[in-house]
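During the second half of the funding period, the structural biology subgroup turned its attention to how the target accommodates small molecules. The most pressing case was NAI, which had performed well in the primary screen but for which no bound structure existed. We therefore specified the complex as follows and requested a full 3D prediction, including the ligand pose.
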Amino acid sequence: MTTPSTTLQTDPETRVVDVAIDNGHALVTIDNPPVNPLSVSVRKDLMEAVRLVNEAKCKTAALVCAGRTFVAGGDISEFAGPPPLPHLPDVLNAIEASETPFIAVMHGTVLGGGLELALACAWRIADEKTKFGLPEVNLGLIPGAGGTQRLPRVIGLERAARMAANGKPVNARTFEEFGGLDLVFSGDPVQAIASFRDNLPARPQNTSARPVADADLTALKAEITKSAKGADAPMIALETTALAARVSFEEGSKIERQTHLDLRTSAQSRALRRLFFASRSVTRPERLKAFQPAEIKHVAIVGGGLMGAGIAAASLAAGHRVTMLERDTESADAGSGRVEAIIAKDLASGRITEAKANARRAAFSAGADYASAADADIAIEAVFEDPEVKRAVFSQLADVMSETALIATNTSYLDPNMISEGMPGPGRFLGLHFFSPANIMKLVEVVGTSVTTDQTMSTAFAFARGLGKIPVETGVCDGFIGNRILSAYRRQADYMVADGASPYDVDAAMRGLGMPMGPYELQDRTGLQISWANRKRQLAAGTWPGRYVDIADKLCEMGRQGRGSPAKKGWYDHTSGSGKPDPDIEAMVAAWRTEHSTAQQSFSADDIVIRIMAAIVNEANLILEEGIATSDTAIDIVWTEGYGFPKHLGGPMFWAEETGMDRMREAFAAIEAQSPGSWKAAGVFKS
Ligand code: NAI
């Protein structure tokens, strides 16, 4: 006999857990869409469910979740203040101590609090596609409800410490091999529960009561220190997990909980949580919510070079049909080869199956005939950065495509208004600025022209999100949000090199801040010629702002155009593989300084960082004032997603606030004094 769910004595208005008892076995269902987070109502109801199944003396209680996943985590919207009662550790302790043993029956993504909940149950069974992880470190936190103390008691110290510290999920088969699961099933969970109950193993010792064997974590510590790149939480998670072998469960859990609560207010966690929420809101502008995005099935990509191939691969991965257009069949073959190389790499690394790879190959074609783009829903051009070439491509696309289909440019610096001017259906043109490698990098700047319709923007945002990207709206200016700030960054770096800093010291200082590489390493990586061409364009147009340092131009003239250039040299010497500082560059820079009689100064690593950040933050504020970016978080998303600014530092705007605007103003005054007339001050920096 099944009893109805109304026996739970919690507020029916907020009730999110259902208990049904059948033949002495309970089925406890959490239904808290969309991902069943452990909000206060779930915690209250679970407490009540434990009471109820024990009162009914149930033989077992199977804990399942409605919807697409088992509990996918805590409720991070509760993290800003003190957590309301009951606290999760108490709920989990009650489940573990329950006379009626709980079986966690899982599917989807069992993350954070979800995994902690499962670890408190007597048994764990899961669908074969389930993933398990402790991703708290990604938000600058560590688990707060026994995760670091129960997980090592189930899968061993080293594995648990790795999962807690790197935040990466593992799949069901791996978690089963680790000893984390009692059964992996495929298909119907009801059936799986029934057969598990039919052969119910003896109730194991409660997780918290099990011993933990100590392990040598030296190698793991070195690995995590390296991968954390200055983020604190990963090492704290590791150290807290290590406590499991040294102190009692109660003691370890107390320390874990306190550490978790302390970290909630840390700057790093606030930074990461702000970015997490912003990456949801920035990608869904309020203004566009009233529009229904048009469906995209067929994507045309013009230009099969580095960017075109990456955008094509990303579109194929999202399930679109892709037609690539090139100048001639030979170039089309080369473009196809680049797309195939990406698919083959994904296949070789195990990221996709053979069937998926073949589906992508089947959905792809390349040629030189624009007629094949006639029924495309969106076209993206990624041809040479030349306005005339781009206009010709836009015009040919407009000739064959429907007037409702979108036509986008991937230009880095050119004005999409100018590329589309005078063409039919002006509201459907826009910029979609992907970052390299476009199949991997998540950022896409979405650039409306002065006449792009909101309908077009809405479709473009939905398309980009569908590719798994983070679209950010930007107005038109030289370099949009990201590259315009990059230009200011490079300018200040060059000014310091001109006035006495070694480019290698500048790189080291920015790496010290947590950037993956410094500005000169980055130039060597991407090639010096693109920004050289851009500087020439700005000089010719008279738009270069202020002092001009032409050291990079000299490198280009010498054929030192970066790692990928025939000379295999740029700021560094790459002839032996890895880039090495080059005494020739030091000598050349020294000669340049003498020739230009620049006042020699010495810059400490801190001076370098704060001056570069002053230039970045000033430009970012100008961008906000001009309405190019819609919010400071949009800027921080662009710089963390597109340029490797450390997420745990929150992005340049967050960093500036944390550092203190007085210090930033002081640093801005210093860069103004260093290069008079070179910086237009944003409102916050006006004296
Ligand atoms: P690329 O030189 O690797 O590829 C350009 C491709 O366009 C070549 O395969 C060429 O054959 C083809 N092409 C040239 N004219 C054509 C035409 N009329 N019709 C069809 N195909 C034509 O260049 P890359 O790096 O892929 O850049 C393409 C665009 O993307 C440029 O506007 C660039 O500014 C922009 N971009 C580049 C980034 C990068 O990191 N390389 C990042 C973001 C944007």
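Two results from this model are relevant to the next phase. The longest helix spans residues 605-625. The two ends are 78 Å apart (CA to CA).
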